[in-house]
Write a structure and sequence with these properties.
- By secondary structure, the chain is of the alpha/beta class.
- It has a single domain (10-209), classed as Vaccinia Virus protein VP39 (Rossmann fold, 3-Layer(aba) Sandwich), CATH 3.40.50.150.
- It has 6 helices and 9 strands.
- The chain has helices at 13-25, 31-39, 71-80, 98-104, 117-129, 166-170; strands at residues 60-63, 66-68, 88-92, 109-114, 135-139, 152-157, 172-182, 188-195, 201-209.
- A 7-stranded mixed β-sheet has the order 5-4-3-6-7-8-9.
- 46% of the residues are buried.
- The structure holds S-adenosylmethionine.
- S-adenosylmethionine binds next to strand 2, helix 4 and strand 4.
Length: 222
């Protein structure tokens, strides 16, 4: 049964608890990550016509040909960043603002870049309504990162690019983690990269995935 149809944290609370149980069953065990998913009202970040699907493990359209990612993959990516609470995180691809709202519970500061103005504005307004105060929004090409705010302890890329953008690797702090989908469009892999030295990185494949295009100077051509 739904707990109600209100906006904000109290709306759909029971459904969110069920989502958290499913995430736990899928192998997400970090209590801070699970608490963030229980807390963030995903329905407030999708069109009202889609509220009935807001807590299914599926991507949903948010306009401009873009999607809000499925909760399961957002949870996998958030957990893979290994956040403790004091970090500054860069997100490439604000979209609906859902991943940014989750990260706002897991890190001290979130810098989120989106290339489509209408989405950036809508996400900023939605997160203001949710009283999220530690996310900064920028409009632009996130494949270039934000050198003025680097280095970042964590970077999450939420659109699929042909390869890991070099500027993002350069803007990763020593010991920092970058998580995102990369590779050919029909065979994207979710990668976790860790910076282990000035010019050394380790790379781990977390699984296959299917994201919308990362479009930009160090991504796919528009
Ligand atoms: N994190 C988003 C969320 O929680 O809703 C995921 C949104 S969607 C899967 C990916 C987003 O990346 C889209 O909004 C798209 O416009 C954006 N995007 C694609 N290329 C980009 C780039 N170079 N810089 C910034 N945003 C980009």
């Amino acid at each position: 049964m739904l707990s109600g149809h209100a906006s904000g944290r109290t709306g759909f609370m029971l459904v969110r608890r069920k989502l958290v149980e499913r995430l736990r069953a899928q192998g997400i065990h970090d209590p801070r990550v699970l608490a963030a998913f229980e807390d963030v009202p995903r329905h407030d970040l999708v069109p009202e016509a889609l509220w009935g699907q807001a807590y299914k493990d599926t991507a949903l359209p948010i306009g401009e040909g873009q999607t809000i990612s499925a909760p399961g993959i957002v949870a996998t990516m958030s957990a893979a960043l290994g956040l403790r609470g004091a970090e500054c995180v860069l997100e490439v691809g604000t979209g609906s603002g859902y991943q940014a709202a989750i990260l706002s519970r897991l890190a001290a500061r979130v810098i989120s870049i989106e290339r489509i103005p209408a989405l950036a504005q809508a996400a900023q307004a939605a997160l203001a309504n949710l009283k999220v105060r530690n996310v900064e929004f920028y409009l632009g090409d996130g494949t270039c990162g934000r050198p003025e705010d680097a280095p970042f302890e964590a970077i999450v890329v939420t659109a699929g690019g042909p390869e890991v953008p070099r500027p993002l690797l350069e803007q990763l702090a020593l010991g920092g983690r970058l998580v995102g989908p990369f590779g050919p469009r029909d065979a994207q892999q979710l990668l976790r990269i860790q910076r282990t030295g000035e010019a050394s990185f380790t790379q781990e494949v977390l699984g296959r995935c299917d994201f919308v295009d990362l479009v930009g100077r160090n991504g796919w051509l528009p």
